[in-house]
Each structure stands twice: as structure tokens, then as C-alpha cells.
């Protein structure tokens, strides 16, 4: 399952054609816990893009599929995307807190690469 954050509706639709197990995270879901969203397996009725940075949370994706899946999504979207796999800890986090953590990690690694 893929959880998409920050993707406009047209990109969500394109990705859903290839990967049917997608839940787009809408702005109205920002205070919800990741695990609850996964259990419900349904999207928001009124989808509104949450944030400007595209993020993909990969949940229960076999390790051997991760690299190919990430490459395919990057090729399809063609923009900077933050990828993360769900963990027992991240499943308990609110989406807003998880986004903040992923943005902070992304900044850290980008700064290290530029040195």
C-alpha cells in the first residue's frame, strides 16, 4: 500500500492506474494517526493537497520490491519525492508530525550531500 502526501489529483490518478492500493492523504487528514488511515483504507471525500512536498509512505511493501517501486514512481512523477517505509513507531504518529519529521530528515540529508 502507498500513502501519498502532497500529490495533486492528476498525479494521484496517474499513479492509481499503475498501483491500485493507494490512499491519497488529504489536508483534512493531517491530524489523524497513520495506522487509523491504513485500517480504514479509504480516501477523503473532498481531496485537498496537503503540503507542497510530495511524500510516499510505503506500507507492507516487500523489501525486494522497494527499489523498483521507488524508481518507477520517480520516473512517472519527475519531481523530488520523499520516500519512507512505515514502522511500528511511525504508525502511531499523526500525519502532521510524520510530515515534519520526514521534511527535517530530508533537509539534513540534502545538506550533507551538498558539502
Question: How does this structure look, described?
Answer:
The chain is α/β, with parallel strands linked by helices. It has one domain. 45% of the residues lie in helices and 16% in strands. The chain has a four-stranded mixed sheet with strand order 2-1-3-4, sandwiched between helices. The chain starts with a strand and ends with a helix.
SSE layout and pairing:
Layout: E1 2-5, H1 9-18, E2 22-25, H2 34-40, E3 54-58, H3 63-77, E4 81-85, H4 95-114
Parallel strand pairs: 1-2, 3-4
Antiparallel strand pairs: 1-3
What string, H for helix and E for strand, traces the elements in order? Answer: EHEHEHEH
**What is the first-to-last residue Cα distance?**
35 Å
Counting H and I runs of at least 4 residues, what is the number of helices?
Answer: 4
* Unreliable sequence segments: none
Quickly list its features.
115 residues; alpha/beta; 45% helix; 16% strand
Summarize this entry quickly.
It is built from 4 helices and 4 strands.
